[in-house]
Design goal:
The protein is an all-alpha fold. It has one domain (3-151). Helices cover 86% and strands 0% of the residues. It has 4 helices and no strands. It has helices at 3-35, 38-72, 83-117, 122-151. The two termini are 27 Å apart.
Length: 155
C-alpha cells in the first residue's frame, strides 16, 4: 500500500470518530435532557467534557494533520487554493475554535455552578441548553465539511 492510502485511511478514521462521536453525543444529550433528571444531566456533562478533551480534540487535530499531509503529497492534484480544501480548513478552524473557546469552557462553567448550587441549578441547565444548541450548529458545520470534502464543488 502507498503512503497516500494509509494517510487517507487514518484521515477518514479520525473523521468518523470526530463526526460520528458528535452525532452520538447529540442523540444521548437529547435523550437525557428529555428525562429531566438533573443528576443525569450533570453526570453526562462531565462525560462530555472528558470525551471532548480526550477523544474529539486529538481526533480533530489528527484529521487536520492527515488532511494537510494528503494535500502536500498529492503531486499538485490537490491544492490549498481549491475551494473544497480552503473552505474545509476555514470551517475546521471555526469548529475547533467553538469547541476550544465556547463548548469546553461552558461545560466547565456549568460544572462549577452545579458544584455551588447542586444538580437542580436552573443556571447550569440554561448553560447546557445553550451549549446543546451551539453543539448542534457545530455538528451541521462538521457535516458540511464532510459534504464539501466528498463532493469537491468547483473542482
Amino acid at each position: 500500500m502507498e503512503a497516500e492510502s494509509w494517510l487517507l485511511f487514518f484521515h477518514l478514521t479520525f473523521v468518523a470518530i470526530w463526526v460520528g462521536g458528535n452525532v452520538a453525543l447529540q442523540v444521548l444529550g437529547t435523550l437525557v435532557s428529555r428525562e429531566r433528571q438533573p443528576e443525569k444531566m450533570r453526570d453526562m456533562a462531565g462525560h462530555f467534557e472528558f470525551i471532548g478533551m480526550r477523544v474529539f480534540t486529538p481526533s480533530s487535530l489528527l484529521v487536520l494533520v492527515t488532511g494537510v499531509w494528503l494535500v502536500l503529497i498529492s503531486d499538485g492534484e490537490w491544492a490549498f487554493s481549491q475551494f473544497w480544501v480552503w473552505s474545509s480548513l476555514v470551517m475546521f478552524a471555526i469548529s475547533f475554535g467553538l469547541g476550544l473557546l465556547y463548548l469546553g469552557p461552558s461545560l466547565g462553567k456549568a460544572k462549577a455552578i452545579w458544584t455551588e448550587e447542586g444538580p437542580s441549578s436552573e443556571r447550569a441547565a440554561a448553560i447546557i441548553a445553550r451549549l446543546f444548541l451551539i453543539a448542534r450548529i457545530d455538528l451541521v458545520l462538521l457535516l458540511l465539511i464532510v459534504f464539501v470534502m466528498v463532493m469537491k464543488p468547483f473542482l
